Amino acid sequence: MTTPLTNPSDDAALRQAMHRVRQEVDKAVIGQAGTVTGLLVSLLARGHVLLEGVPGVAKTLVVRSFARALGLDTKRVQFTPDLMPGDVTGSLVYDARTGEFEFREGPVFTNLLLADEVNRTPPKTQAALLEAMEERQISADGVSRPLPDPFLVAATQNPIEHEGTYSLPEAQLDRFLMKLVVAMPERDAEVDVLRLHAGGFSPRALTGIQPVVTPEEIRAAQDAAGRVDVTDDVLGYVVDLARASRQSPSVQLGASPRASTALLAAAKAWAWLNESSAVTPDHVQTMLVPVWRHRLQLRPDAEMEGVSADAVLTAVVQQTRVPI
Length: 324
Hints:
- By secondary structure, the protein is α/β, with parallel strands linked by helices.
- It has helices at 11-25, 33-44, 59-70, 85-89, 123-135, 170-173, 187-198, 215-226, 232-247, 257-273, 281-292, 300-304, 309-319, and strands spanning 49-52, 74-78, 90-95, 100-105, 112-116, 137-140, 143-146, 152-157, 178-181, 251-253, 297-298.
- The protein has two domains: 11-221, P-loop containing nucleotide triphosphate hydrolases (Rossmann fold), CATH 3.40.50.300; 228-319, Helicase, Ruva Protein, domain 3 (Orthogonal Bundle).
- Strand 3 (90-95) and strand 4 form a beta hairpin.
- It starts with 10 loop residues before the first helix and ends in a 5-residue tail after the last helix.
- 40% of the residues are buried.
């Protein structure tokens, strides 16, 4: 049973509550601290997350553990080629008793939606998430229905399997605040994973993880992160980075103004988590790659030469003047 904070406006107490979420997730997930931190930053920035990694690196386990520690209502949708938009958003259903159509809510009406293998469903169904992710509502039969608050979509995809998959269009990718690459754990971490399972851990039950925050505390932390100060110099720095990404010879489509606002929101959340009263260039640099890596469109010749978006963004940071 989670006990609400006596003073939700107390930033220090709210910050401690957010750190407790990480501690709870660590009970089930080993070697993925960066992924958990990215999820937490995205939650504070009111954004969505795309997790990319090969099968077996705990993408789904991370999200399920994170949701359990938050104590939020959670639903999971396994995206498949035959999934229809109404299977996600809901649809009008005829009620024979009343002789009228009524709207039956889909799984998107939740606090945290786990969209598993999101690139396995056709673009039409992928597009059904666009309004939910951007507007936090679903429109059906001329009626807009608001989604619960907080609301976060955590989607997973496999980068190496292409048969039976559909590449996410740029408009869909742009709705994700971050793209987190879930890598293989280090050797010591992998040994710890085996030790955990040898001790009887069940990834299906997650009985050891307890809810440690309330929805009210999450909303208060989001508001607190949004109040972090940003100077004009740092705003200019974000714009300079975006313009530099567009001028890179390897890039066909660089960071847009929406990408800049996303970077600013993530930097403010990261600054708040690190007890900073204002965003610094260091905060911006830390968040730049996960927030922008999926928004750049590389030139075909650069891709053929093995150039990655991460490498381009690293060069952009190195070549852009940092405000003093």
